[in-house]
Amino acid sequence: MDIDLELEMKYIYEGNPYDYERVEYEVVRHGEQFGMNMGYLDCNDIWCSNVLAAQAGEWDIRAYIRYNHPTYGYQFVYSNVVTLEIFYPEVDNIKVDPTIVSEMEDAWNAAVNASGPGNLEERGFSIYGNTTSGSLVYEVKYGNPSPGGSSEETEIIINYTGESKVYPRNGVKFSVAWFHTHPPHRWCTGCRRTGIPSPEDNTISTNKKIPGILMDYKEFSLCYDHDLDLNTGLKTFGPGRRIYDENILN
Ligand SMILES: [Zn+2]
């Protein structure tokens, strides 16, 4: 994506702006004042190329030049402000990423293997995007294994720590989605609906404004003594991509 910034003389400046030292690029969250919580882009000169889209959100960007006047000191010329929206990754892309696919399969197998008579197990993890290498890679952080017994739910922390208002020019790690399995029903009495998020699952995604991915058996429902090796499928729920909300950063 290319954006154009035009440096414009808004005031009568003393001296010669063409004697500027260098161009600086400032970034703030859209709507914030430049000055507080300001970040900078790493650019060397009037051309600012291949800048990493390090963090999703709406950002306001402007440039300025500074030059020194022997009598009046430093003079500044600012550009227009351009608003840029960087989107969080879509859950449809996250769920087919090879790293995530492999982790989901491992989690499924772990949940099935850990389940047994009187013991339901599910597994899950939060999914992060990490841009510190210069491109987006996905990482997972497993929640506590479910305690088994009467409670089969895995405890997954969806963590927004590390995300701030300041643009992280060197990249950052940020939450993009969460994943969990549902447990087999082989050792339980009765039947259960499969492949649908629970009300609690939906509440988490709604409150945290983040997509959820559920892995479960593909059957419509499962009853006691079912085959553990039935095919699995994925169901996504919540928003299609994370929605930034500074009020729920923690
Ligand atoms: Zn669930």
Supply database-style keywords.
five-stranded mixed β-sheet; alpha+beta; 2 domains; five-stranded antiparallel β-sheet; 12% helix; binds zinc ion; 3 helices; single chain; 250 residues
Protein model, in words:
The protein has 2 domains: 17-86, no CATH class; 91-248, no CATH class. The protein contains 3 helices and 12 strands. It has helices at 91-94, 98-114, 199-208, and strands spanning 23-29, 39-40, 57-69, 73-78, 82-86, 124-130, 137-142, 173-181, 191-193, 212-217, 221-223, 232-237. Bound molecules: zinc ion. Residues 180, 182, 197-198, 201 line the site of zinc ion.
Cofactors and ligands present? Answer: zinc ion
User: What low-confidence regions span 5 or more consecutive residues with pLDDT below 50?
Assistant: none
SSE sequence, one letter per element: EEEEEHHEEEEHEEE
Largest sheet: 5 strands, antiparallel
Structural class by sheet pairing and helices: alpha+beta
Mean pLDDT: 87
Beta content comes to 25-35%
Fraction of residues in helix: 10-25%
Estimate nothing, just give the exact number of structural domains: 2
Number of helices: 3
Provide the gyration radius in Å. Answer: 25 Å
According to DSSP, the number of beta strands is 12
The best one-word shape is: rod-shaped
What is the chains' assembly state? single chain
Terminal-residue CA separation:
31 Å
Draw up the topology in text.
Blueprint: E1 23-29, E2 39-40, E3 57-69, E4 73-78, E5 82-86, H1 91-94, H2 98-114, E6 124-130, E7 137-142, E8 173-181, E9 191-193, H3 199-208, E10 212-217, E11 221-223, E12 232-237
Parallel strand pairs: 8-10
Antiparallel strand pairs: 1-2, 1-3, 3-4, 3-5, 6-7, 6-8, 9-11, 10-12
Bound molecules: zinc ion.
Zinc ion binds at residues 180, 182, 197-198, 201.
